[in-house]
Amino acid sequence: YQISQFDMPICEGGEIKFELDGKEKTVGITRIHIEEDPGKMIHTDDGVSLVDYNRSGVALIEIVTEPDIRSAEEAVAFLKTLKSILQYSEISDCKMEQGSLRCDANISIRDHGESVLNTKVEIKNLNSFKEVGKALQKEYKRQSDLTRFGEGHKIKQETRKWDAAKGRTMTMRTKEDAHDYRFFPEPDLPPIILEKAQIEAAHHALPELPDAKRTRFHDV
């Protein structure tokens, strides 16, 4: 059971721009919503799963992007840009090793020249930029190899975890479809209503963000 804004996110649309190898890249933002941290799963080497509820009930924000990222390198560059924006805005200290910034990476491949993506796989709770890059590269290779050898049907919609020691992704659970999550209204929680004046006040209170500062120093 997890409380989430679901169909009434606090933000929709928008984009984040960043540079990689001298080229500007834009990633669209689908939505930003508040949800409850349900706790932390710890999976031991002997196959035992533990649950840490110390953070349970704490509010967090989830940022969902459009499928605009085309490589592990782009994913890392995007996350570094996002981290700098969150830090400059004093939204989070972004200490990944302490869990204040985490990444769930979705990856799917497609045949060259095709526009439709194949089955999506989620890699859960990556806690460093280095491991994000490694996990995406390994999962891309796994899916590509299966497709190349005619076993693309073995790519399932599922959640996988990254085993850094073994250098591979591993199945955690089969991913359910949206209707299987059984969303229903929480009658004891009132809606969050942000007035236009509140949004404008927050916008004007923002400090100078990294891109603006970079441009200002470049123009001096």
TrEMBL record:
It comes from the Eukaryota. Residues 1-199 form the Aspartyl/Glutamyl-tRNA(Gln) amidotransferase subunit B/E catalytic domain. InterPro entries: Asn/Gln-tRNA_amidoTrfase_suB/E, Asn/Gln-tRNA_Trfase_suB/E_cat, Gln-tRNA_amidoTrfase_suB_CS, Gln_synth/guanido_kin_cat_dom. Keywords: ATP-binding, Ligase, Nucleotide-binding, Protein biosynthesis. SUPFAM superfamilies: Glutamine synthetase/guanido kinase. The keyword Ligase applies. This is Aspartyl/glutamyl-tRNA(Asn/Gln) amidotransferase subunit B. The lineage of its organism: Eukaryota, Metamonada, Carpediemonas-like organisms, Aduncisulcus.
